[in-house]
Amino acid sequence: MHNLTIKQMSEKLHAGEFTSVQLTQHYLDRIAKYDAELNAYITVTPELAIQMAEEADKKLADGSAELLTGIPVAHKDIFCTDGVKTSCGSKMLDNFIAPYDAHIVTQLKKVGMPILGKTNMDEFAMGSSSESSYYGATKNPWDHQAVPGGSSGGAAAVIAAGLAPLATGTDTGGSIRQPASFCGITGIKPTYGAVSRFGIIAYASSFDQAGPMTRSAEDSAWLLNAMAGFDERDSTSLEREKPDYTAELERSLDGLKIGVPAEYFGEGLDADVAKVVKTAIAEMEKLGAEVVEVHLPNKDLAVPSYYVLAPAEASSNLSRFDGVRFGYRCEQPKDLTDLYKRSRSEGFGEEVKRRIMVGAYALSAGYYDAYYLKAQKLRRMVRDDFINAFQSCDVIMGPVAPTPAFKIGEKSDDQVSMYLSDLYTIPVNLGGLPALSVPAGFAQNLPVGLHIVGPYFSEAKLLNIGHQFQQVTDWHTKTPAQYQ
Amino acid sequence: MSWEVVIGLEIHAQLTTKSKIFSGASTAYGAAPNSQACPIDIGMPGMLPVLNQAVIGKSILLGLALDAEIGKRSVFDRKNYFYPDLPKGYQTTQFEFPIVGQGKLEIELEDGTKKVIGVTRAHLEEDAGKSVHGLEQGQTGVDLNRAGTPLLEIVSDPDMSSAKEAVAYAKKMHELVQYLGICDGNMQEGSFRVDSNVSVRRPGEPLGTRAELKNINSFRFIEKAIEIEIERQIELIESGGTVVQETRLYDAENDTTRSMRTKEDANDYRYFPCPDLLPVIITDEDIEAVRTTMPELPDAKRTRFVAEFGLSDYDATVLTGSRAMAEFFESVVGLTKEKDVKLCANWMTSGFSAALNRDGLSVTESPVSAEMLAGMIERILDNSISGKIAKQVFEAMWQGEGTADQIIESRGLKQITDTGVIEALVDEVLANNLEQVEAYKAGQTKMLGYFVGQIMKASGGQANPGQVNKMLVAKLK
User: Is A99 within 8 Å of B39 when comparing Cβ atoms?
Assistant: First the structure.
């Protein structure tokens, strides 16, 4: 059951070959069997899942079902879910049960998608390995010694291990695409504003964007159809007609102009990864695409810019966690200052505290111009690089990450090295552009993703390219031996 | 050597919107604690602000009234600091790009001199909640009903040089925001809050260090607080001390100001543009659309009342004291068929205003409507009742006994104008006062008043005084 595509799964549900309850139970059984080792879920919600599956079966029976009705989903634990713990991977919110649903949770509930549970993640989405979770590191299903990537590492792992057919993630600096690459799955970060941020616990508001994490591009297109769309509760939500993201899947790649930036294949890129990416681009050429050289001269400014701006926003976004109204509160506070200091010192992990400190510093009087404003200028330069490049190509391709999944613990003491693992994904967030990661091969026996970046609102085109690539390759169907 | 006083005011005007600036929760005053705080106001995780568009038009209206630049692109910023009544750990406000830029307001002092006070800017922001002390031993409660209430912070230039000027400016602004209908002006409920920045210097020298006087909720106390703060600063400097930049609270009981916090405790607010909100873009068309809704402003109304109605400056000033008063007056004038503006004005400034003051009511709370007052004035003008009887009728209307006509009818107060009835009354009084009649005829003409009084008394106050007078004079010839 868990090796079917979403479309096949839907057809079988509609044909009555199995029920949503059976399908959901199948995944719950696999979670029970595998997740103790993998640690990809923070919370599993079997009762809720079955109850929702029963309702979905009614819809399937009475003919009101849509394509995704009855297909279970796992939400990243950053999405508020009514009545279910939403921890954001933090001790700070270990006791937090949201009294409302995030917009995308509402959307998927409306369609009738049973919720399997909430997936593990780096604390407050700050990290590239899912090791900073209060609930412990998630393992990479391909190699339990390796990280699944982050911050949506739990989501990537549950898809790779067949512990959910579909998952939701968020991507602030690469948090959908890098774990997708590390775990051999497909993930897309849509254009900023395409998916409502309502109910997503904010990390860096001007970057945060939710998207699907699935086995194939086709599956992502179906899930994105359900997630995207204007929401008046998010002022940065784009008020435009929602496209059908599956509409272009079958289009030929004939004449597609692929920009390949030479800068992306320089120092720091693992040779095996480079080979996988180049082979994948060559495959695209066989499908009728044409490669042109483009330049992104300011790409090295992206990581420094991001690591000023994202922490600056985070330092403010995370101020609400003060021990006063919800979340963790220290024992026996002596006075107000003690309440603040200890609640936050004890409730937040190291990486979160580091970024709050960095962000507060960058915004402080006397440093604002030198750091925050300067970083905003760099952000515009990086975005303009893309806009210029897209004048001579339709999409840009390159690696998602410089290496395959690294070992658990390998980079946890070296933050700069960890930050640099996002050097290909971060520029896309600075520009607010959409980008896709599709499985493209293996390096050192670990999956490697191909990064496809497009102009604003080109999601349907990116998914079309991913889908066409997946018609002639089978990397996306590969599963780790022990999870087959 | 003399001292020069420099005062600038920061006024927080709460905008009259039904819901909060970034959420749909109600802004009504006085609800049970935290009953009007939704997840957005509480700063719950994942919640996002959405701007209440109603605040934009209200801000533009003020900008136009102050002849100010309107910010075509204003930006919301976050002012970061920790406090229990500040749920998100930051206040959403406008820092670098306010919605209203440089403008001005003309004030008039008691001696009639006029002075133009610059208005630096006015920006939109959300109010904080409030801490409630003393609920339980050693504990402080937080009420977030007020959190997210829309405020327009109006910042003046440091153009005022006395407490009197400062209060004149504050009063003028208070009148203006109410005229514009953007703020209810209720100072007791905190809808209009005035913070005063006060400093002193020797003429020609650079600005002195200022102290800020906060949370004073009456114009009288603002004036007193500024005056004693000026005295305190001068005494301090003259005795060799230096003024420190600080916030001071006015203690009305002891008539002193005392330090609340000094600049050393001041936060670094780490302002930056709020990434959850888009810049507010205002077009020329938007501004023109608001301009068409601009009500007549107090100064223009006063001038018109003098020119159009021939009222005295005093009456015009009283009648334009609030927009509600002026509108009530104009309704009354409009509703009376026979125009006697002076009579309408007299009733507004005396009987009507006195009753409001006595019962502590505002114009809009008056139990006597403009229709009712006009109806009564009509009866005075058509001689149905005398001015004296009208006072009785007005009081009865005030007590809810009905319209003037109903009261005149039920109490039998209709004026006697029947010549035969009046003649009988005159004859009766003259017959009973033969001595006085003789005295009158001997030249004591002021006896006339005595006769009128007697006749009116005999008629129960209902005889038409004019007719009585006429007939008396004729009979006494």
Answer: yes
Distance CA B277, CA A242 (A): 22
Q: Give the one of A96, A205, A233 whose C-beta lies nearest to B45's C-beta.
A: A96
Which residue's structure tokens are 């959910």?
Answer: A164
Q: Phi and psi (nearest 5°) for B195? A: -110, 135
User: Does this complex have an ipTM over 0.90?
Assistant: yes
Fold observed for domain B419-475:
Arc Repressor Mutant, subunit A (1.10.10)
* DSSP type of residue B279: P
Domain boundaries, chain B: 4-287, 298-411, 419-475
Nearest Cα residue in chain A from B43: A320
For A129-174, where are the E strands, in sequence order? 167-170
CB A42 within 8 A of CB A87: yes
Q: Between the CA of residue A410 and those of A353, A424, A480, what are the distances in Å? A: 21, 20, 22
Smallest CA–CA distance, residue B350 to chain A, in Å, is: 53
Give the integer Cα–Cα distance in Å for B275 and A204. Answer: 8
Q: How far is CA B120 from CA B8, B10, B12, B102, in A?
A: 10, 10, 14, 5
CATH level 3 topology of A6-256+393-483: Amidase signature (AS) enzymes (3.90.1300)
Q: How far is it, in rounded angstroms, from Cα A153 to Cα A151?
A: 5
Number of continuous H segments (helices) and E segments (strands) in chain A = 15, 11
Alpha carbon distance A175, B113 (integer Å) = 67
User: Of A68-77, B280-289, B426-435, which range is least confident?
Assistant: B426-435
- What is the SS3 assignment for B455-469? HHHHCCCCECHHHHH
Other beta carbons less than 10 A from residue B140's beta carbon: 13
CB-side exposure of A340: number of CA atoms within 13 Å? 11
Nearest chain A Cα distance for residue B35, angstroms:
15
Q: What is the CA radius of gyration of chain A?
A: 21
Which among A161, A144, A213, A174 has a CA at the least distance from the CA of A445? A144
- Rounded to the nearest 5°, which phi and psi values hold at A187? -145, 140
Is beta strand A435-443 parallel, antiparallel or unpaired with respect to B246-251?
A: unpaired
Spatial distance between the Cα atoms of A271 and A254, rounded to a whole number of angstroms: 29
**CB distance B210 to B30 below 8 Å:** no
State which H helix or E strand residue B152 sits in: strand B150-156
Q: Give phi and psi for A105, each to the nearest 5.
A: -65, -45
Which residues, including other chains, have CB under 8 Å from residue B320's CB and lie 6 or more apart?
Answer: B298, B301, B302, B305, B326
- CB of B138 less than 8 A from some CB of A: no
What's the pTM value of the predicted model, to 2 decimals?
0.90
A121-180: pLDDT as tens digits: 999 999 999 999 999 999 999 999 999 999 999 999 999 999 999 999 999 999 999 999
CA-derived radius of gyration, chain B? 30
The tokens describing A406, both together, are 């690294």
Answer positive or negative: Cα dihedral of A212, A213, A219, A220: positive
A33-58 burial, b if ≥16 CB within 10 A, otherwise e?
ebbeebbbbbbbbbebbbebbebbbe
Q: How many other C-beta atoms can be found within 10 angstroms of the C-beta atom of residue B228?
A: 17
pLDDT tens per residue across span A262-308: 989 988 899 999 999 999 999 999 999 999 999 999 999 999 999 99
CA–CA min distance B32, chain A (Å): 18
Using a CB-CB cut-off of 8 Å, the residues of chain A touching B271 are 363, 368
Backbone angles phi, psi at B104, to 5 degrees: -155, 160
- Distance between CA atoms of residues A288 and B22, nearest Å: 51
The amino acid occupying position B48 is L
Any bridge partners for residue B281, and if so which? B73
